[in-house]
User: Fold these one by one.
Assistant:
Number 1:
Amino acid sequence: MPVTERKLKFAFYWGASCGGCEIAVLDIDEKILDVAAAADILFWPVAVDTKYSDVEAMEDGFIDVCFFNGAIRTSEQEELAHLLRRKSGCLVAFGSCAAMGGIPGLANLANRDKIFETAYLDNPSTSNPGRTLPSKESRVKEGTLTLPEFHDRVRALHQVTDVDYFLPGCPPPTNLILEAVNAVIKGELPPKGSVIAPEKSVCEECRFEKSEKMLTEIRRIYEVEKVEDRCLLEQGIICLGPATRGGCSARCLDAYMPCTGCGGPTPNSMDQGGKMISALASILGLEGEEALPDEEIERLLDGIVDPVGTFYKYGLAAALINRRLEG
Amino acid sequence: MSEYDPNIIAFLCNWCAYAGADLAGTSRLKYPSNVKSIRIMCSGRVDPVFILEALREGADGILVAGCHPGDCHYQSGNYKTSRKIRLLRRLLRELNMDPERVRFEHISASEGQKFADVVTDFVNELKVMGPNPLKGECQ
Ligand code: FES
């Protein structure tokens, strides 16, 4: 039976995520009732008590659409990614973490050993005299306890399994979620691999006027006494708008906060950070550039205290260079 | 350790550096054959994304060469490129990719010798540095 004539079979899972995506779905307010009327929620660990074994028992492709949020960090998440891929006709990488690793992806600046060291050993608020670390198996007198394996690296969903659509955003904007749900219900889906968001940058949706297109100093937001009603970049505040895909109506800018890039790279770009470096270097130190000494350029660039965290806040795991290299 | 042959991608601006490389050739200057040249209209055309992709694909070194300051045919392409590369190198350092793998040089149309010297020097430096750690990685 086509989806239009019956209830949509829907699943929602979380990998390495903060739970914000789950809240975003509830954020569609009373429209959630329409979704509930149109859909059967087969699997949603945060809201519905279905077991993994129930999903395993389903026929392959039984679920019409699965929204998978969160990155892949553990063996459990990886298994579920494969399982839900098999059981779902349509798998959507939902939110920045599933789509490109998200903030958990910044952990690729370290590795498992360093993370365990910081989290369980060298943490000022942790007392761990036995230096116990999580391990896959631990024996207790009642038997053997197991934990999923903690991988060395964070990956985006498409780096683990085949993904049909991407819905970035931290969390994805409500209107885009609704658009995606409606597209599935009506069967009007874009070509496989599409990002469900407009083909434009955040700047194009931003209400602020751009005029000078020149940057003489970089300032962090706390150093700015009052953010003015004009392009934040031009006020020296790093805003990832030019390198980030829109669809969010530039809502952070409405609150006088710079874009930090959760929409991922713009449609024509392979790498958000590279694009932003290009945009920034083209306007920073433009004034009198012929006479600008090297030291002055370096001093201007010192204003960017954390290049990876600034340019790949959400996208390191899926970037062209996706981690801090060993050695 | 068996010696490896560094693989260098060179982005050369049409008006200066590419002509300089040409001159090195027509003057029969000797320089290592490790360079794969890509002609671009201006060094300003080089997007940091190109460089990241080249590194991702396993290039050991990337040379970007444009006109001398004040000589860019599009006024300011080379100034912008200089800042782009500086910023990119900062990023690479944080990712533990040796920033010296990415070089920016000013080479004029009459500097065939300089082109040959830059390439020779870069190849020697890359030999000391060893191969790009991302080489052979495919995901
Ligand atoms: S034309 Fe040579 S650097 Fe711009």
Number 2:
Amino acid sequence: MATLRVIFHIAANDFRLTLKARGIIAWIFAMPLVFMLVFGLAMKGSSGTDRKARLTVDNRDAGFISRSLIEELRAEPLDVVDSLKAGESAIRTLVIPEGFTEDVLARRKVALELQKESGADVEASAAVNAAVFRCLLRVVSPLIEMEAGMLERGTKGFAFKGDSLAGSPFEASLADPRLLGQIEAGLDSLRAEPSLVTLRSTAAGALRKVPSGFQSSVPGSLVMFVLMTMVFSGAAITVERSTGVLRRYAYSPAGKGSIIVGKLLGRMLIAFVQIVFLLLVGKYLFRISLGSSTGALVVLMFVFAFCTGAFGILFGSLFRNPEQVSAISIIATLAMSALGGCWWPIELVPRAFKTIAFVFPTGWAMDGIHKIISFGYGMGAIAPDAAVLAGFGAAFVLLASWRLRPTD
Amino acid sequence: MIEVRGLAKSFGDVQALSGVDFAVGEGEIFGFLGPNGAGKTTTISIIAGLLGADSGTVRVNGMDIAKDGTRVRQILGVVPQDIALYEELTARENLHFWGGLYGLAGKKLRGETDRVLEIVGLSDRADDPVREYSGGMKRRLNLSAGLIHGPKVILLDEPTLGIDPQARLNILDIIRNGVSGGMTAVYTTHYLEEAEKLCSRIAIIDHGKILAQGTLAELVMLAGEGSVVTVTGAFSSAQVSPLLKGITVEHFGDGSLRMMIPGRSELSGALGRLFSAGIPIEDVSIREPSLEGVFMKLTGRELRD
Ligand SMILES: Nc1ncnc2c1ncn2[C@@H]1O[C@H](COP(=O)(O)OP(=O)(O)OP(=O)(O)O)[C@@H](O)[C@H]1O
Ligand SMILES: [Mg+2]
């Protein structure tokens, strides 16, 4: 209890001291807005196109079931094309074999081929797969429903024989040619109804498209300026160290653990204030989407605050000279922001840079935020990002507590 | 109250302390006198548990600092040599913060803050940021931050460093009055006068070793130091030399004479003989025995900043 009180005491003091620092209010609240605006406007034109995942459909069937399937596919947020123009690439190619409609109605085994294109984005591919399955389900389930109806009505050429089913809608249609037309009409009307079964794949959500404009500049500026604030407030530790203030902590009964946790907590509180402010500005001023999973966003922002707060403390513990720190802090923040993908969408940089981004916590933070706010994913999808950020944070804390000795 | 035995500490090649022993009784102000780099701060840091000693033990109120650090720190106050304060906060805010680290809160914390502000005479400036304080005021606040939790033992590391004589006297008074409440103190300094004025016992430390320790009188005796008497006048050495048998003469020339006289009776005897012989004396100055001389005797150097 006493320890906890001392931790909060230290946290409250560092929170207050950070806000008292000269010019910090501008850096926390005003500068990020300028960046959001300028970068948002700059990126609007360049990559503002809505890049839907492209699906090539090679339809060799002439029947109505393949037609229904393609109609369903077109209703999905996919770019469905018959063939590729020169220079275009697709995520997947769906091959519908000849006689598909007849085979389905005859209840013969039929294979749809979904060819994976080389080099396609994993998440985009998953999204296309999910869309194809969703469409199949929406076509097949009305057919099953109609078969059941035909069985009930005792349609000719199609009946139960003991435990097994004899015949098929196709055989029945041979006896009654009007039946095919009825099935086609039935299928169309059933498809129009809201379906009873919906397939939600884990990779559901909007398709991977390059976030642009404010959707890109808001999270980028957020990550960069929270990091900036934390590095800046971490530099205060260098000052405390050089003035001997840190040593005075060590004269007190408060242990080193309490001191570090307290200082971390104080910084995280600052980060929370900044994050909440910037997200609200993003939502209400720049009108960006914050995704549908508030829980995931809270978790991600919490580990992000932990990670950057810990980085700030580590940063402050590495140096002794306050002047040295202020110069290095700017460079470090800018480098980590640029390479981590805060300035432009990571989708637009060469592959090597994408890998480099994930060397830095900023890369993981950007990845996680975009999963939530731009692609509509939830907790499951950001778990790796959150775990890596937490891991970075823990490593930073350990290093900092090793670096910070009371006698320094 | 404080017991230091066989303390040794080296930083790489530098032997900062070797075999430091001393003990401080309850309510005593113990002086730790030594020039720059003597090992004063190192000793304080080890007593406070910030540094581990290479060998030796430190007990405060019977508790071993190496084993019972947290409990020792609860009753220990430290006034560091450097002014360690938050410049952007006010004196009151600083004291609230430092007091809070000792678990003080609420009414008690506010009460103690007012108490120490009163002691160091900063009550009327308590709500100004420390940044705007003079050097002497900062020193006083630095001192009060070590007193905020009402420690039983206080370690003062050159608390008057770098301030003018007036402000120094002020701080000495504060310590004398503050410590009269039964606090035990270790007072490090390289100002002889301070140790002389303030401390009941004094240790002289140089190059990490205690050269001598005891009361002022004991130290003076130890060094065989007496009063230094300087006499000037229109006399020649031939006139006075027969009158000075048995007296240590340090310097002898026409018109000027400096001698070392061990006690009061020898002093009046010598001066009486000069006057009754009609030697034309213009000026006599007597410097009382001091640590200065002791230090010179022990180290062969003068003690100066
Ligand atoms: N952290 C350290 N690393 C290396 N050497 C040190 C360290 N601290 C002290 N020393 C050395 O130990 C010796 C004693 O230093 P200390 O600070 O105890 O002296 P001091 O008596 O307090 O001097 P001052 O009057 O200048 O404050 C010096 O030679 C100093 O250079
Ligand atoms: Mg010192």
Number 3:
Amino acid sequence: MKICVTAKDKGMDSGIDPRFGRCAYFVIVDSESGSVNSFENTALDASGGAGIRAAEAVANLGAEALLTGSVGPNAFSILSEVGIEVRIGIKGTVADALNAYREGKLEAIDSPNASAHAGMK
Amino acid sequence: MKIAIASGKGGTGKTTVAVNLVLSVEGMQLFDCDVEEPNCNLFLGQELEKVEDVSCPVPVIDSDKCTLCGKCATFCRYNALAALPTGIMVFPFLCHGCGGCGLVCPEGAVQEEPRVLGVVEKGKTTAPLEFYRGLLNIGEAMATLVIRTLQEHIDASRPAIIDSPPGVACPVIAAVGNADYCVLVTESTPFGFHDFKLAVEVVKLMKIPFGVVINRDGLGDSRVEDFCRAEKIPILLKIPNDMRIARLYSEGIPFVEEMPGWKEKFAAMFKAIESGSESGVMNA
Ligand code: SF4
Ligand code: SF4
């Protein structure tokens, strides 16, 4: 199973980024093979619809679970359309987030927990 | 002649100036282009009727024809389309109706359907003035489309006053862009002054002749007047910071109705703008 964590940098030791649409990297970990791949979030600079672009990318990377902090309504509708499980409340590094997920410590959400444009500064 | 009433920020008295001006001159048309918060009718109290819906064409994807190539989603700069492994998902609220996705689709899989995002309304009474306003539905982003549709109702043979939205963003450009003259309404307070200077920059860029109305004159200091004098910007009218005017405003009564001397002042301002002699109006 492929799990996606939103992060500030590449790899397992990178710090997480709780803002889904505006994170710098998606770190995708394959729980079967143990492979770790990091992908730049090209939606980072989008002036609007960043969450849509980000969710589209995560869906096309084949993730089945997304570990992050907050997801807006547009992104959430994509994630649920594709059937990606969304968990929130990550802290620390990507490795920490994965451990918390395995231990069942991350809250599952079935509706958006941020408003559109929440990640814009 | 089309005269836009604008201001760098909200709450400076733009609507007051627009409404009192149309009530001071015979045969005017008033267009409330502040489509997110049209206020003019609070003072006019007209019964309104719908003239037309404002709608934007949004794509509908024919999943039988779509090969999921993703070209449409890549093209859309408003991120209104998402190319997912399961199909193309459309976010109509973000779509600007440019039609580009349909043009780039190699399969002819993009159809369009209209999505209503606002309405143009008109006052039922046509005398002494004709009143139109646009209304953007809550949560919609395309104020400019409503403003453009609204302005199609301008009768060019009669003077038209355009109450512009506040600020200096796209909707303001749409409202003020095709005016023959722009009246900037401001207050002489530090905040008002900052936004006023931004608005001046914008009308200069649009190359529209303009003048200034100072509202609540007496409040604040002389910085707006000093600036106008230095920049040779005509000051068309000063509306004093007057208890009576404030009270009438709060009661929704245009003050020219109760303070008739003001009708002449507004009418004189209009004449001066119309004849192009406004640079001398109040500047002495
Ligand atoms: S019509 Fe234009 S804005 Fe709307 S979805 Fe298509 S490309 Fe995007
Ligand atoms: S461009 Fe046409 S065929 Fe390609 S994904 Fe979009 S709708 Fe489908």
Number 4:
Amino acid sequence: MAAPAAKQEGFYDCRDAWARTIEELAENDPRIVAVVNDSVGSSKLGGFQKKFPDRLINVGIAEQNMVGVGAGLANGGRIPFVSAAACFLTGRALEQVKADIAYAGFNVKLVGQSSGVAYGELGPTHHSIEDFAWLRPLSNITMVVPADSWETAEAVKWAAAHEGPVYIRLSRMPVPDLAVENRKFEPGKAELVRSGSDVTIIACGTMVHLAVQAAAELEAEGISARILNMATITPLDEAAISAAASETGAIVTVEEANIHGGLGGAVAEHTSANLPVPVERMGFPGFVPTGSVEWLFDHFGLTATGIARSARKAIGRKRG
Amino acid sequence: MLKNDIVDTIRDKALWMRRRAFTMVHDAQLGHPGGDFSAIDIIATLYFGVMRYDAKKPDMPERDRFIMSKGHATGALYTALCAAGYYPEDWLKTYMQPQSKLNGHPNRNYLPGVETNTGPLGHGLPVALGIAIAGQMTKSDYRTFVLTGDGELQEGSNWEAAMTAGNRKLGKFTLIVDRNRLQQGMGTEETNGLDPLDDKFRAFGWDVEVVDGHDVGALFNALSEPPGGRSKPLCIIANTIKGKGVSFMENKASWHHGVPNAEQYNTAMEELV
Ligand SMILES: Cc1ncc(C[n+]2csc(CCOP(=O)(O)OP(=O)(O)O)c2C)c(N)n1
């Protein structure tokens, strides 16, 4: 739908890692099935469909049906990966997600594609920036927001093996692989991408690599920024947040989501109750105007420079 | 105006809309041209033959309403509203640009003439139903028209609204289904089939007419209110061709949101005359 972003060397669309991984898993586990809403192409499931035509259920443009069918397939002993544009998967089928997946507790994997503002010019109906706030209270759904291709593949493998509901939130915006050594995907654990002592930038998904660039900018000014990749929003790594608050004294959160009720909200809930420190929340304040993804990121300060600016602001708010 | 003159006018407008919409899609390298082209003759017939409105008074209470439920086909809607006089042609050049009023899906807060925001499929029919019920309550004589895709009818919300409209005998309510038999990825019947669609609507208490959705004379007749009005809602199943008017686009799902390169654009412009 939206024009693909200009191809940049070393940047990858995480949907490719998702598609590769689900195909591999399905080879070895006949219980794995995919459920879609006329979204084979946008979910990159063309390969899966070719290999396993009987294990792809396309219910058509019918998201409520799609999520309910996912719950039923789990009841029937299948491991369904329900994959659709994140906006329709979480928004249109929210009550099915709540009642049939979370409350009933079925072993269903929801995979939200092209989340955040990835659909750019197609506008707020197609953006999925409310999904964190909608799904956070459904606390038995593990909510994972991979930052790169490696993490996407690991999250999908983990989800397939895990017994219980999962929401994996993917983008279509190409991102580079994070340069972190000895990585291990641990749900519920923040990944330390960079050590630092003056401020902590807590980011997820497409925002993590921008935070890394921001830290480099800040370093040039003598500011030491810690970076946490908070790939799991639920359950939240509260210990890592407490450590960030007590050791760096200021926090910036960055998410490709609405700033109300998302990652920033979760961090602020925790710090305000336990270790009050300045928290600058970055994201979108509400419905956004028409614009490409790049334009929207720039307009709302979701850039390395913008993140560095918020970091200085958070540091400035520390109590002397 | 004599019927032949009206039909000629509609044809002229539809041709202008196709050319202008495709230019917008080409310039933005974004859009949904296949669904624009299947819908344009229907929308042109409504705006330039059937509907009562005053573009200078977009909030006029007695206006007929048109709800574009297949909101992705903005090329068709935006060119129609422009040709109807709701805004100047210059605005079309901003299609999809930063802060444009011409978003990838229509927003009533941005543009006069847009009755409601659409984009997620399956929203237009319930909203249009509410408009029609309001008209019935206030004894207004405005008509409410709503255009859906056919794939869109896989959304259950449509059938909830269809049931209510049938039960309430909303004679001033008209649904047009753009029956191009393709959705995003492939055919409607191989995805989650809709046939027999006419029988489904009849069973829900609607009058049904099946027409060639590119024959503007037939569309004009079907959309015009019969003397004495109707006692049931009307569903017009308009058999259409996705990509209609450009040989290499017709009946190809890939043109759902495919965009033309320069050569394809030029070829299309040669054909659209
Ligand atoms: C609720 C919802 N689910 C999915 C989509 C993505 N989508 C946009 S257009 C489209 C296909 C629509 O097919 P159809 O209704 O037949 O329209 P047409 O062929 O006339 O363009 C899909 C699946 C959407 N816009 N809304």
